[in-house]
Amino acid sequence: MRRNTFWLITALFVMVFSSQAMAGPALSVLGQDYTFPNKIEGTPDKLSDFKGLEINSFKTSDGAKLTYWEAGSGKPLIFIPGWSANGAEYINVMYLLREHYHVYVLDPRNQGLSENVDYGMRISRYAKDVKELADHLGIKSANYCGWSMGASVMWSYIDLFGTQGIQKVVFIDEPPSILTRPGWTDQERLNAGAMVDTPEQLMRAFTSGEPNPVLERFMAMDSPYFENSESFARFFIKSDMKYMSLIMFDHASNDWRDVIGKKVNVPTAIFTGEYSPNLPSQLWMKSAISNSTLYVYSKQEQGDHFLAFKNPVKFTKDLQEFLER
């Protein structure tokens, strides 16, 4: 009986400890400090320099445990990363914004520190995850920023839930439709940003290592800010391509032009750059959303798909200017 009691207490201790391990100061959750490869004025030299950075989690209505990163105080600002991305990559963005906003970055299911699951592999479920994050936090209204696939998640969010809880919304360099539809003219394809004829082509492009413009800009590693955030993410995040790739088919199959043209009715910022193959579609989005501002970063300003991480000082300055306008 005593042995059973001992094991019961031990099991309860492990359960409590495990539940706490993914909630609290980032340094405690990650288990060790980290020194960034480049010392850059205005950004932390070590993880421990980022006071107030926390990593917490919640459970969705369908049972997936999702992690979110948070820092700062003030109005809530929620970031939705792109495919395969995570909160660790936002380390500089969060640090630069922490004095002005209460910043949150969600690790989508199967990404970052969130749980790997084989269900809910639909952009609509990812959108509900965002809604449930806001509900979990008790946030009734916030600014939202979706990058890459994260922008698609926000288009689905607006399609499902409207814009009542959105003050302003930001989209970073995501085409309205990745997949070319039969019968499209060349202009329709440019407006949509379509880049492949089948979802399988997109999956091969991002999982087989074949050259493509987005991966080429990623591999360039031509920014010390980007090198810092990527090295930090690689050190702590162990991604499983088997799980991450499950969402790609649904992601590639959506056409969001009707949502963009008819349902985005709050002040909107669109970020893209001269290096990005998505530039034509971002110009179309600017014309389709009446109350929108377009930011086109030059090549000298690191204007590619990763502009927010390669040039976080300019990005956060432009973002804050837009949000406070």
UniProtKB/TrEMBL annotation:
The keyword Hydrolase applies. The keyword Hydrolase applies. Its EC number is 3.-.-.-. It comes from the Bacteria. Keywords: Hydrolase, Signal. GO terms for molecular function: hydrolase activity. Residues 75-209 form the AB hydrolase-1 domain. Residues 1-23 form the signal peptide. InterPro entries: AB_hydrolase_1, AB_hydrolase_fold, AB_hydrolase_sf. It holds the Pfam family Abhydrolase_1. This is AB hydrolase superfamily protein YdjP.
